[in-house]
Task: structure prediction
Amino acid sequence: MKPDVFKQYQAESENWLKRGRRSLLRTLLEEASRTTGTTKSLDILEVGAGVGQNIPTLQEFGQVEVVEVSDIGLAALKDIPNINRIYSTPIPFNLNKSYDIICALDVVEHIEDDKTAIKWLVDRLKPGGYLITTVPAYQWLFSDHDIALGHYRRYTQRTFNRILPAELTVLKSGYFNSVLFLLAAAIRLVKRLTKSILPSRKGFTELKKESSTVPGWVDSAFGNFLLVETKIIEGKPIFPFGLSVFCLAQKVSN
Result:
């Protein structure tokens, strides 16, 4: 991810989309912690911690360590209290520690060898530990937005679950950001059509991340849509489509 794109990502860290994703994360963390049957503080690793927008939520459930490679992200993380350790090496790297929960939220799509990345995550889970992941949905939505973010691909629920190793049992998976899916998909397809009809000047197109910043009242409304989705997901993932795929999986105990 380019520095200017990461700065935009940082500026949007408290908008409706990031709040909605944190709500989904909390729901999946609560389900994992209930399933553990313990009230002890959990050992948690977040891979791709960004500017630390998820850290306060994660710290409610245990002791947190993070992996982040962006200089901007690392600078922000160093200012957040009570992070046990910050790793600045891209995965896979040699890490002789295991965790109760590992989170990789919108991370796997940035890694060319996604199967190796997932295997690295699973190998660092304790027996019975949990992997929480999100990835962008639908390859047909792949656009300049994805290229600017450094994505290699997008997924469906089926194609993502297919790359999970055998020692993982999927407890819950599905689509998120479903209410706004049709609007976002239509906008992206119109942009793609416009680009094909109206070529850029001098054959050059600047790749940009699509902004998720909206006016205040729209931000509030969109945020409420995602909160409703999260409440539904607490029961059962029923949405047949969405802009993201999420998965909560457990490592089989030996």
Q: What stands out?
A: The mean pLDDT is 87. The beta strands are 42-47, 62-67, 83-87, 99-105, 125-136, 168-176, 244-251. The chain has one domain: 3-251.
